Amino acid sequence: SPLLLVYGERDGDVPLAVAREALAEAPNAELVVIEGAGHFPFLDDSDRFLDSVTTFLTAAEAPSVV
Known about the structure:
Layout: E1 3-8, H1 16-25, E2 29-34, H2 41-44, H3 46-61
């Protein structure tokens, strides 16, 4: 299953390095880093957060081309 990780660039609670480690372990993962955001990127930059999630969900719903 596809996995989206959305992280704040300045997350002081769960460092970005943790996201990069998770990304390495999840073959279907995508990482979006929101510049200037902290631990709550959905609050710090809600527009960018929503754009990222919407793009990810739209791509997940698109039919695969074989």
